Amino acid sequence: MSETWDEDGDPWIVKGVTRAFENDWFGIDAHDVIRPDGRPGQYGVIRVRRLAVGVLPIEADGRVHMVGQWRFPLGRYSWEMPEGGGEPGEDAHDCAIRELAEETGVRAQTLLKVLEMDLSNSLTDEKAVIFIATDLAPGDAEPEATEVLRHRTAHFRDVLARVADGRIRDSLTVAAVLRAHHMAVTGQLPPLLAEEMLRQGD
Protein backbone atom coordinates (compact mmCIF):
# COMPACT_ATOMS: atom_id res chain seq x y z
CA MET A 1 0.00 0.00 0.00
CA SER A 2 1.27 3.46 -0.93
CA GLU A 3 1.00 6.47 1.36
CA THR A 4 1.72 8.92 -1.47
CA TRP A 5 0.16 9.97 -4.79
CA ASP A 6 3.30 9.11 -6.80
CA GLU A 7 2.79 7.83 -10.35
CA ASP A 8 4.65 5.08 -12.20
CA GLY A 9 5.77 5.06 -15.83
CA ASP A 10 4.12 3.15 -18.68
CA PRO A 11 4.76 -0.61 -18.21
CA TRP A 12 3.41 -1.58 -21.67
CA ILE A 13 5.61 -1.97 -24.77
CA VAL A 14 3.76 -1.42 -28.06
CA LYS A 15 5.20 -3.38 -30.99
CA GLY A 16 2.61 -2.34 -33.58
CA VAL A 17 -0.90 -0.96 -34.11
CA THR A 18 -3.59 -1.98 -36.63
CA ARG A 19 -6.85 -0.09 -37.22
CA ALA A 20 -9.41 -2.92 -37.03
CA PHE A 21 -12.59 -0.87 -37.50
CA GLU A 22 -13.59 2.71 -38.17
CA ASN A 23 -16.76 4.78 -38.61
CA ASP A 24 -17.78 8.41 -38.13
CA TRP A 25 -17.89 8.05 -34.34
CA PHE A 26 -14.96 5.87 -33.33
CA GLY A 27 -12.15 3.58 -34.43
CA ILE A 28 -10.84 0.38 -32.86
CA ASP A 29 -7.07 -0.04 -32.68
CA ALA A 30 -5.51 -3.47 -32.09
CA HIS A 31 -2.16 -3.06 -30.33
CA ASP A 32 0.44 -5.82 -30.40
CA VAL A 33 2.07 -5.43 -27.00
CA ILE A 34 4.46 -6.82 -24.46
CA ARG A 35 2.46 -6.91 -21.26
CA PRO A 36 3.77 -5.71 -17.88
CA ASP A 37 4.48 -9.37 -16.97
CA GLY A 38 6.72 -9.70 -20.05
CA ARG A 39 4.36 -11.87 -22.09
CA PRO A 40 3.16 -10.91 -25.61
CA GLY A 41 -0.48 -9.98 -26.07
CA GLN A 42 -2.99 -7.76 -27.82
CA TYR A 43 -4.82 -4.75 -26.40
CA GLY A 44 -7.84 -3.33 -28.22
CA VAL A 45 -8.62 0.34 -27.66
CA ILE A 46 -11.71 2.23 -28.82
CA ARG A 47 -10.64 5.67 -30.09
CA VAL A 48 -13.60 8.05 -29.80
CA ARG A 49 -13.72 10.96 -32.25
CA ARG A 50 -16.04 13.24 -30.27
CA LEU A 51 -15.77 14.75 -26.81
CA ALA A 52 -18.68 13.77 -24.54
CA VAL A 53 -20.35 16.86 -23.08
CA GLY A 54 -23.02 17.03 -20.39
CA VAL A 55 -24.79 20.04 -18.89
CA LEU A 56 -26.84 20.09 -15.67
CA PRO A 57 -29.34 22.97 -16.00
CA ILE A 58 -30.53 24.23 -12.59
CA GLU A 59 -33.32 26.80 -12.19
CA ALA A 60 -33.18 29.44 -9.45
CA ASP A 61 -35.81 27.52 -7.45
CA GLY A 62 -33.68 24.35 -7.44
CA ARG A 63 -35.46 22.52 -10.25
CA VAL A 64 -33.29 20.58 -12.69
CA HIS A 65 -34.08 19.99 -16.37
CA MET A 66 -33.87 16.29 -17.22
CA VAL A 67 -34.16 14.42 -20.50
CA GLY A 68 -35.48 10.88 -20.93
CA GLN A 69 -34.69 8.65 -23.89
CA TRP A 70 -34.24 5.03 -24.94
CA ARG A 71 -30.56 4.07 -24.93
CA PHE A 72 -29.99 1.54 -27.73
CA PRO A 73 -26.76 -0.05 -26.39
CA LEU A 74 -28.35 -0.67 -22.97
CA GLY A 75 -31.76 -1.71 -24.24
CA ARG A 76 -33.57 0.41 -21.66
CA TYR A 77 -34.90 3.87 -20.89
CA SER A 78 -32.66 6.43 -19.21
CA TRP A 79 -33.36 9.74 -17.48
CA GLU A 80 -30.31 11.97 -17.64
CA MET A 81 -29.14 15.53 -18.06
CA PRO A 82 -28.78 16.98 -21.58
CA GLU A 83 -25.74 15.38 -23.21
CA GLY A 84 -24.11 15.01 -26.57
CA GLY A 85 -20.94 14.60 -28.56
CA GLY A 86 -18.93 17.59 -29.66
CA GLU A 87 -18.09 17.81 -33.32
CA PRO A 88 -14.35 17.31 -34.00
CA GLY A 89 -12.67 20.58 -33.05
CA GLU A 90 -15.82 22.03 -31.45
CA ASP A 91 -15.31 23.89 -28.17
CA ALA A 92 -16.86 22.05 -25.21
CA HIS A 93 -18.61 25.23 -24.01
CA ASP A 94 -20.22 25.75 -27.41
CA CYS A 95 -21.27 22.10 -27.54
CA ALA A 96 -22.92 22.35 -24.12
CA ILE A 97 -24.91 25.42 -25.18
CA ARG A 98 -25.98 23.67 -28.40
CA GLU A 99 -26.99 20.39 -26.75
CA LEU A 100 -28.94 22.16 -24.01
CA ALA A 101 -30.92 24.14 -26.58
CA GLU A 102 -31.46 21.17 -28.90
CA GLU A 103 -32.71 18.78 -26.24
CA THR A 104 -34.68 21.12 -23.94
CA GLY A 105 -35.02 24.49 -25.68
CA VAL A 106 -33.41 26.07 -22.62
CA ARG A 107 -30.86 28.85 -23.06
CA ALA A 108 -28.29 29.46 -20.32
CA GLN A 109 -26.75 32.81 -19.49
CA THR A 110 -24.20 31.24 -17.12
CA LEU A 111 -22.26 28.05 -17.86
CA LEU A 112 -19.67 26.75 -15.40
CA LYS A 113 -17.29 23.89 -16.19
CA VAL A 114 -17.18 21.65 -13.11
CA LEU A 115 -15.66 18.30 -14.14
CA GLU A 116 -13.46 16.58 -16.69
CA MET A 117 -13.70 12.78 -16.83
CA ASP A 118 -12.15 9.74 -18.50
CA LEU A 119 -14.89 7.26 -19.40
CA SER A 120 -14.42 3.46 -19.27
CA ASN A 121 -10.66 3.96 -19.29
CA SER A 122 -9.72 0.29 -19.65
CA LEU A 123 -11.40 0.14 -23.08
CA THR A 124 -11.54 3.61 -24.56
CA ASP A 125 -9.85 7.02 -24.63
CA GLU A 126 -13.24 8.79 -24.49
CA LYS A 127 -13.21 11.99 -22.46
CA ALA A 128 -16.06 14.05 -21.03
CA VAL A 129 -16.59 17.60 -19.84
CA ILE A 130 -19.46 18.52 -17.52
CA PHE A 131 -21.03 21.94 -17.00
CA ILE A 132 -23.60 23.42 -14.63
CA ALA A 133 -25.97 25.86 -16.36
CA THR A 134 -27.84 28.62 -14.50
CA ASP A 135 -29.71 31.85 -15.31
CA LEU A 136 -31.96 29.92 -17.68
CA ALA A 137 -34.54 31.04 -20.23
CA PRO A 138 -37.09 28.77 -21.96
CA GLY A 139 -37.23 28.13 -25.70
CA ASP A 140 -38.19 25.52 -28.28
CA ALA A 141 -36.32 22.22 -28.39
CA GLU A 142 -34.88 20.95 -31.68
CA PRO A 143 -33.81 17.31 -31.10
CA GLU A 144 -31.89 15.36 -33.72
CA ALA A 145 -33.74 12.94 -35.99
CA THR A 146 -32.43 9.94 -34.02
CA GLU A 147 -33.65 11.34 -30.69
CA VAL A 148 -37.11 10.71 -29.23
CA LEU A 149 -36.94 12.69 -26.01
CA ARG A 150 -39.03 13.46 -22.97
CA HIS A 151 -38.24 16.67 -21.08
CA ARG A 152 -39.23 17.37 -17.51
CA THR A 153 -38.05 19.24 -14.44
CA ALA A 154 -37.59 17.81 -10.95
CA HIS A 155 -36.26 19.39 -7.79
CA PHE A 156 -32.57 18.80 -7.21
CA ARG A 157 -33.28 16.80 -4.02
CA ASP A 158 -35.41 14.36 -6.05
CA VAL A 159 -32.74 13.99 -8.73
CA LEU A 160 -30.11 13.44 -6.02
CA ALA A 161 -32.32 10.77 -4.42
CA ARG A 162 -32.66 8.97 -7.76
CA VAL A 163 -28.89 9.05 -8.18
CA ALA A 164 -28.42 7.68 -4.67
CA ASP A 165 -30.85 4.77 -5.09
CA GLY A 166 -29.71 3.85 -8.61
CA ARG A 167 -32.75 4.91 -10.61
CA ILE A 168 -30.50 7.38 -12.44
CA ARG A 169 -27.45 5.45 -13.66
CA ASP A 170 -26.01 7.52 -16.53
CA SER A 171 -22.41 8.12 -15.49
CA LEU A 172 -22.15 11.75 -16.57
CA THR A 173 -25.41 12.61 -14.82
CA VAL A 174 -24.40 10.79 -11.63
CA ALA A 175 -21.07 12.63 -11.56
CA ALA A 176 -22.68 16.00 -12.32
CA VAL A 177 -25.34 15.67 -9.62
CA LEU A 178 -22.85 14.58 -6.96
CA ARG A 179 -20.48 17.38 -7.95
CA ALA A 180 -23.31 19.94 -7.84
CA HIS A 181 -24.32 18.72 -4.38
CA HIS A 182 -20.73 18.98 -3.16
CA MET A 183 -20.48 22.51 -4.57
CA ALA A 184 -23.75 23.50 -2.89
CA VAL A 185 -22.72 22.27 0.56
CA THR A 186 -19.19 23.71 0.35
CA GLY A 187 -20.16 27.22 -0.75
CA GLN A 188 -19.01 26.97 -4.36
CA LEU A 189 -22.39 27.94 -5.82
CA PRO A 190 -24.35 31.19 -5.34
CA PRO A 191 -25.85 31.09 -1.81
CA LEU A 192 -29.49 31.49 -2.83
CA LEU A 193 -29.18 28.78 -5.47
CA ALA A 194 -27.45 26.42 -3.04
CA GLU A 195 -30.16 27.07 -0.44
CA GLU A 196 -32.89 26.16 -2.91
CA MET A 197 -31.05 23.05 -4.11
CA LEU A 198 -30.59 21.78 -0.55
CA ARG A 199 -34.07 22.68 0.65
CA GLN A 200 -36.03 19.70 1.91
CA GLY A 201 -39.58 19.02 0.74
CA ASP A 202 -42.59 20.30 2.63
UniProtKB/TrEMBL annotation:
Catalytic activity: GDP-alpha-D-mannose + H2O = alpha-D-mannose 1-phosphate + GMP + 2 H(+)
Keywords from the named record: Hydrolase
Lineage: Bacteria, Pseudomonadati, Pseudomonadota, Alphaproteobacteria, Hyphomonadales
Residue stretches making up the Nudix hydrolase domain: 48-176
Family as reported in the entry's similarity comment: Belongs to the Nudix hydrolase family. NudK subfamily.
Keyword match Nucleotide-binding: no
Keyword Hydrolase: yes
Entries under CDD domains matching the protein: NUDIX_ADPRase_Ndx2 (cd24161)
Protein name: GDP-mannose pyrophosphatase
GO BP terms in the entry: nucleoside phosphate metabolic process; ribose phosphate metabolic process
Species annotation: Candidatus Viadribacter manganicus
GO terms of molecular function: pyrophosphatase activity
Pfam family, one: NUDIX
Origin: domain of life: Bacteria
Cofactors, names only: Mg(2+)
